[in-house]
Amino acid sequence: MKIFIKGCFQPLPYELVKHLINQDIEVFGQDHYEEDDEKFERFAKIGRHASFHLYDSKEPLRADCYYDFTIDNLLCEFYKLEDQIIKVHDSDYNRKQNGEQLIDEKIIFLASLKDYSQFPDHIKLNGEGECSIHLIK
Questions:
Q1: CA 82 to CA 64: how far, in whole Å?
Q2: Pairing between strand 2-6 and 26-31?
Q3: E-state strands within 14-129
Q4: Hey, which residues does 3 pair with through a beta bridge?
Q5: What span, in angstroms and rounded, lies between the C-alpha atoms of 137 and 124?
Q6: 3-class secondary structure, 17
Q7: Which of 4, 31, 63, 83 could form a disulfide with 70 if both were Cys (CB 3.0 to 4.6 A apart)?
Q8: Which domain holds residue 82?
Q9: Distance CA 121, CA 47 (A)
């Protein structure tokens, strides 16, 4: 199992990351830290763990951004010889305008940490308001 956690150095997601990597579950975190803030202290405690991988999100999210996780970046595995894809879009409007279809049937679990993280309110996950944690088989 691989888990993607956005805002992984916020207090509650950080505790979850620690718990998961101590159980040798592979965690992909996305966040940004400066060397003089408390996020750096959290990174220093878990950053070298073999089960933790960090994507440093220094740039703020743009209104038209989306995430596409496929086998190429190791966040997904093959299922019936096809890539599993999860796309996170900012709004239904952009998706309809671009004529894109979201593939969500491969998501096996979603949990929201919106109340505890800095994930922007305008970002939508597969047309829903859930965000932050994606467990991918």
A1: 26
A2: parallel
A3: 26-31, 52-56, 67-69, 86-89, 109-112, 124-125
A4: 27, 135
A5: 21
A6: helix
A7: 83
A8: 2-136
A9: 27
**With the CA atoms of 34, 36, 132 and 130 taken in that order, what torsion angle do they form, in degrees rounded to the nearest 10?**
-100
Q: Give residue for tokens 């202290």.
A: 41
Token digits of residue 75: 């966040």
**Count of domains observed in the chain:** 1
Distance of alpha carbon 133 from alpha carbon 1, whole angstroms: 13
pLDDT in tens, 18-58: 988 998 888 888 888 888 888 899 999 998 899 998 887 66
Which two structure tokens, joined as six digits, stand for 32?
Answer: 């940004």
pLDDT digits (tens, 9 = 90+) for 55-73: 876 655 443 334 444 444 4
Q: Calculate ∠ Cα 106-129-80, nearest 5°.
A: 5
d(CA 124, CA 9): 21
* Three-class SS state of 13: helix
